[in-house]
Amino acid sequence: MLRFLITVIRRDLLLAARRKGDWLTSQFFFVMVVSMFPLGIGPEPEMLRRIAPGVVWVAALLASLLSLSRLFADDHRDGSLEQMLLSPEPPVLLALGKALAHWLIYGVPLLVIAPVLGLQFGLQADVIGVLMLSLLIGTPVLSLLGSVGAALTLGLRGGGVLLTLLILPLYVPALIFGAGAVDATLAGLGPEANLSLLAAFAMLTLMVAPWVTAAALRISIE
Amino acid sequence: MLRFLITVIRRDLLLAARRKGDWLTSQFFFVMVVSMFPLGIGPEPEMLRRIAPGVVWVAALLASLLSLSRLFADDHRDGSLEQMLLSPEPPVLLALGKALAHWLIYGVPLLVIAPVLGLQFGLQADVIGVLMLSLLIGTPVLSLLGSVGAALTLGLRGGGVLLTLLILPLYVPALIFGAGAVDATLAGLGPEANLSLLAAFAMLTLMVAPWVTAAALRISIE
Amino acid sequence: MSFSIYKYASPMTFYGLAGKMIPWFSWGAAILAGLGLYIAFFMAPTDFQQGEAYRVIFIHVPAAWMSMFIYMVMAFWSAVGLAWNTRLSFMMSRALAPTGALFAFLSLWTGAMWGKPMWGAWWVWDARLTSSLVLFFLYVGIIALWSAIDDRRRGDKAGALLILVGAINVPIIYFSVKWWNTLHQGASVSLMQAPSMAAIMLMGMLVMAIAAWFYSIAVAMVRVRGIILERERQTEWVKELLEKN
Amino acid sequence: MSEISHLAVRELACARGERTLFSGMNFQLRLGQLLLVQGGNGRGKTSLLRLLCGLAQPLEGEVHWRGQEIGGVREEYHREMAYIGHVNGIKDDLTPLENLRLSAALAGRHLDERTAEQSLIRLGLERCLDLPARVLSFGQRRRVTLAGLMTAGAVLWILDEPLTGLDVHGVALMEGLLRDHVTGGGMVVMTTHQPLSLEGVATVPLQVGPVLQPQED
Amino acid sequence: MSEISHLAVRELACARGERTLFSGMNFQLRLGQLLLVQGGNGRGKTSLLRLLCGLAQPLEGEVHWRGQEIGGVREEYHREMAYIGHVNGIKDDLTPLENLRLSAALAGRHLDERTAEQSLIRLGLERCLDLPARVLSFGQRRRVTLAGLMTAGAVLWILDEPLTGLDVHGVALMEGLLRDHVTGGGMVVMTTHQPLSLEGVATVPLQVGPVLQPQED
Ligand code: HEM
Ligand SMILES: Nc1ncnc2c1ncn2[C@@H]1O[C@H](COP(=O)(O)OP(=O)(O)OP(=O)(O)O)[C@@H](O)[C@H]1O
Ligand SMILES: Nc1ncnc2c1ncn2[C@@H]1O[C@H](COP(=O)(O)OP(=O)(O)OP(=O)(O)O)[C@@H](O)[C@H]1O
Ligand SMILES: [Mg+2]
Ligand SMILES: [Mg+2]
Predict the structure, then answer these.
(1) How many structural domains does chain A have?
(2) Contact D17/C233, CB-based, under 8 Å?
(3) Which protein residues are within 6 Å of ligand 3, measured from CB?
(4) Contact call for D193 and E165, based on CB within 8 A
(5) Is CB count within 10 Å lower at the N or C end of chain E?
(6) What residues contact residue D114 under an 8 Å CB cut-off, 6+ apart?
(7) Is residue D126 part of a domain?
(8) D129, part of any domain
């Protein structure tokens, strides 16, 4: 069981390592979307600081969505998804493994980049700390919920955009609690309430999402 | 010549019509991304009004990017791109036709939706007018430049994200002039300067982009 | 035997039942709507604060209620469908979704129409407004998913899964949005707390709500009959039915 | 032992879209037998094989493995079965060697490098061991998949046109593999449109759709 | 007329990655001839055909059409040539009929609905005229592509394993098409791993890589 989970994760990490540029590009997307805003909005530091948490979080959402559309699609196209579903191990572990691998590949690096972006927007150290913490708790939610969407839209035309359409509304609580925690810190209130709600949401997602993903996969490849 | 151009455009429109939900989904993506920002940033009307032009423009960029990654990819995968390049007609017309079709399908509807989003953010009628005008001039640029990127990244793994990396920097002038025109109107200055710069940029793109796209296509399919 | 009753008899008998129900619910909806509108425009007093514009409440509130209620019903049918693989359940949720989306849109639309005179803005990022918007997005997502899937069985099941995930999420979304909104600012614009709402208004709203309910049932029945016919095209009873007409 | 029918199909029916492709299909397969699924293009061969794997659900009827419905013994069944479809199921970014070892690991088996290498060499891929699968030719990619089949150690092979794109050598090799597997007590369910010489193999033909008269056109 | 060599190749060399697949290749093809490119998996048949089409550029050497380099007469060459690769080149979202008419339009030809329909029916797709190509079976999709070839009206056909996935009927049909085309003064360059009966057709064999001894394994 655990061996299977680890194999699935190792496989995806290996594939990501093989696609050298791809992984880096996704991180660049994140940086760029965030950096677009000062260009579109104007350079006032006060306002930029105000919008920073929201912008970083929305960019994290979009970056994860972009990579999610390929979470199962590549494996589906080349037939290896079928082969994995024909493995004797339970599909729910496959779903969980894929989501965790996605988080390790695309979510974790965001945590490293976020502080730099925070500095760009003139955030204080403590605010940046909360930003990172909120991303640490929140990004697994993005991967897990996203995997549900990726499984549902598998093989459909326009899967990527459809995925966005399905999943963005479900991301709302993560976005609100995550950006809310940072906002609260900016406003001098504590982030604890938001963070613990975010953590609860993450736990719930962890319990539910892999099962739904596994069911959706079986339906989609039929 | 012109017949070929029209055939290419008609073909893409037909395909878009066949993928019923797909086209609509892309428009909803635009609406959703814009609607996510207040959730991340907070509901103060004054600030939302200030960031509205930037948010709408960035969302337009992203919406066009997302659909662009499939501009040639589908045709490449099923082999019909090869077949079109083997047509006696010049590839530059193919490139131009695909970009124009993309604009008709994904760019033009944004013009219709943008006013509604402007209302959501509490923009005045005249500001909304400028916003639409800037999008009218700017979205062809997105399609044309995007087609260059789509051709360059064709067949590469993770093409979608790589595309973003290549093209977002090229979009910067459009973003600055486009959002700048609206910002200037908001600030009580006239939008003319920004709009004419945007128009000049659009003309330049129209002259250059199809040739580059055609060349990139020939290289990518080799 | 019971298996085959599940599989075949159910849509067939339901087709007839639905046919009988449609006139009742249509007429019920029409009469109640007439009554409700009469109350709304002739019996309810002009609001001393808001003037006549407030009368949109008689559409707005029932629409908002129905949009949420229909989602719950869809979630129920989806759960039943996934658990027992009953085909009729999936058809029901498919038949309901457009009406739900319509009501969600209607509540947004009427709310926005009302917001302009009341708040001077078509839209504010209030908690209730925002969560209505998200609900509307959910409806759109579900319909988009269905329309993207050609295979009927796959579409049914995938849609049902999405509806259920959404159903778990909707309350969370609702509270998160509420909290988000109040955290930042002490309710810049609070929706009116129904201060001693006149009994006649409440009555009008209730009547309109029941009318909307009847309307939803009637429309859903019409749609479900269409879906049944389309899906059971190759069965004997549909062929007979089509030949009779 | 070999007298028990390991794979049995009862009253199987399959529909795609509005069309019923086949219904009331019954057959049994024992160890040491090869079921050759025949039928023209679009008759439902692929659809049947996917039902047999459990990748799709039948409209009616059941598939039994050692006397039990495959849904109930999924884990055990998948451990003893290997499937090759129209697509290869190999990752373009990995080398043939990595592909083989990874798919073994995902199926819960350990495959050491030497064995993997040998089976690839047996399939004539000695020059491609370290190339990413992406640059391999059409037939070479198919061979990688077949090498995976060889190392899977499954009892039941379900093969959808395994000969696609193989040259004469490849076809001969595949015939050898099939013969060894079946005479060694394995079972095969396969489709192909190409002629195949299977003397000495207990072959059970199964027709999906009407019989084709060759050269009738 | 038919004595001029229409397609000529001079000292062609092709490299993929680090490997030179072939070099110093020379041949000429006249109207009424069929060039059968032979060679085992991964020898470079597909690579050669793509060079002949102009989809790829040779490492060395030239491809001539009616005495001129194909790069120079691209438009004319493409008007007279039709290519079928390993992938089908049909759109999944369109019906076979729409696919045919659209690809004709893109190639600058008008194809009326009746002709398109007839050629599809000739290829045995009468039941699939109104289905989106996505739901067709593997072999049916191949047949749509071949129908496109029939209606293209090209002089030179370049076909990469056109028989893939075709059933016996399909193969016989294809043989008929080839025979008609070549004896009618057309030219064909093709590869296939399947046996093909082409009596009466002027066939020029071309070996890419070493000759395969059948059943050697
Ligand atoms: C687009 C804008 C609006 C949306 C999306 C919206 C949404 C909703 C929803 C979802 C409900 C049902 C809530 C519940 O019963 O729990 C509701 C009820 C209500 N809305 Fe709106 N609304 C909007 C604008 C307005 C405006 C402008 C007003 C008037 C100032 C208003 C007044 C009311 C009232 C009085 C109720 C009934 C309250 C109750 O009975 O709980 N709404 N609205
Ligand atoms: N959604 C659908 N609607 C209508 N027909 C469908 C649908 N999906 C599949 N089909 C039909 O079902 C059949 C599928 O056949 P399948 O792929 O099993 O064929 P096959 O016997 O493997 O053929 P081949 O030899 O070409 O691989 C085809 O005739 C196809 O047209
Ligand atoms: N980038 C690369 N690096 C090394 N080798 C490559 C590269 N790209 C292609 N090759 C090799 O070149 C050959 C390509 O052959 P091609 O696809 O033309 O074969 P083919 O004769 O059509 O074979 P098949 O019968 O299998 O279709 C293969 O042997 C492949 O391994
Ligand atoms: Mg098949
Ligand atoms: Mg080849």
Answers:
(1) 1
(2) no
(3) D 128, 131, 135-140, 165; E 16-19, 21, 39, 41-47
(4) yes
(5) N
(6) none
(7) no
(8) no
D180: domain CATH number? 3.40.50.300
Count of structural domains within chain D: 1
The residue extents of the domains of chain C are 54-184+195-244
Q: Supply the range of the domain harboring residue B88.
A: 2-221
The yes/no answer to whether this complex scores an ipTM above 0.85 is: no
Total Cβ atoms within 10 A of residue C234: 11
DSSP string spanning B62-98? HHHHHHHTTTTHHHHHTTHHHHHHTSSS-HHHHHHHH
Report the b/e string of E80-110 with b at 16+ CB within 10 A. Answer: bbbbbbebbbbbbbbbbbbbbbbbbbbbbbe
Domain interval for residue E47:
7-89+155-216
List the single residue in C with minimal CA-CA distance to E132.
C150
Ligand in closest contact with the CA of E208: 3
Walk along chain C (245 residues) and give the pLDDT tens digit of each residue.
Answer: 344 444 444 777 888 888 888 899 999 999 999 998 888 778 777 766 666 777 888 889 899 999 999 999 999 999 999 998 888 899 999 999 999 999 999 999 998 888 888 777 788 888 888 889 999 999 999 998 998 887 888 899 999 999 999 998 888 888 888 777 765 444 444 445 455 557 788 888 889 999 999 999 999 999 998 888 888 777 777 778 777 76
Chain D residues touching C234 at Cβ < 8 A: 18
Which chains pack against B, by 3+ Cβ pairs within 8 A?
A: A, C, E
Stated pTM of the model: 0.85
Phi, psi of D196 (to 5 degrees): -140, 130
Instruction: Give the integer Cα–Cα distance in Å for A71 and D52.
Output: 27
The answer to whether residue E66 sits within a structural domain is yes
Contact C104, C132 (CB under 8 A): yes
Q: D34 - beta bridge partners?
A: D188, D203
Query: Residue B157 is encoded by which pair of tokens?
Result: 């793994």
Q: Neighbours of D (≥3 Cβ pairs closer than 8 A)?
A: A, C, E
- In the three-class reduction of DSSP (H, G, I as helix; E, B as strand; rest coil), residue E177 is classed as helix
Classify the C-alpha dihedral B41-B46-B47-B52 as positive or negative: positive
In the reported structure, the alpha carbon of residue E168 is separated from the centroid of ligand 5 by a whole-number distance in angstroms of: 21
Q: C-alpha angle A14/A19/A22, rounded to 5°?
A: 125
**Contact (CB, 8 A) for E64 and E9:** yes
* CA-based nearest distance B101→chain C, Å: 21
* CA of D43, closest atom in ligand 2: 21
User: Which residues on neighbouring strands pair with residue D27, listed in sequence order?
Assistant: D9
Closest C-alpha to ligand 1, atom 32: C191
Report how far apart, in Å, the C-alpha atoms of C3 and of each of C7, C80, D24, E204 are. 6, 16, 18, 64
Q: Could D18 and C233 be called an inter-chain contact, meaning their C-beta atoms sit closer than 8 Å?
A: yes
Most E-contacting residue of D136, D168, D173, D216 (CB-CB within 10 A), to test interface? D168
Chain D residues with CB-CB distance to A15 below 8 A: 91, 93-94
Rounded-to-integer distance, Cα E23 and Cα E1, Å: 30
What's the C33 CA to ligand 3 centre distance in angstroms?
72
Helices (H), chain D: 45-53, 74-80, 96-106, 113-122, 138-152, 168-183
Q: How far apart are CA C12 and CA A46, in angstroms?
A: 66
- What gap in Å lies between CA C221 and CA C88, rounded to an integer? 12
- Distance (Å) from CA D51 to ligand 2 centroid: 13
Which H/E stretch holds residue B209? helix B192-221
Residue ID of nearest Cα to ligand 2 atom 5:
D17
**CB-CB under 8 Å, D102 with A14:** yes
User: Least CB-CB distance to C130: which of B22, B25, B39?
Assistant: B39
Contact E78, B91 (CB under 8 A): no
Torsional sign, CA B21, B27, B28, B29: positive
pLDDT given at position B187 = 85
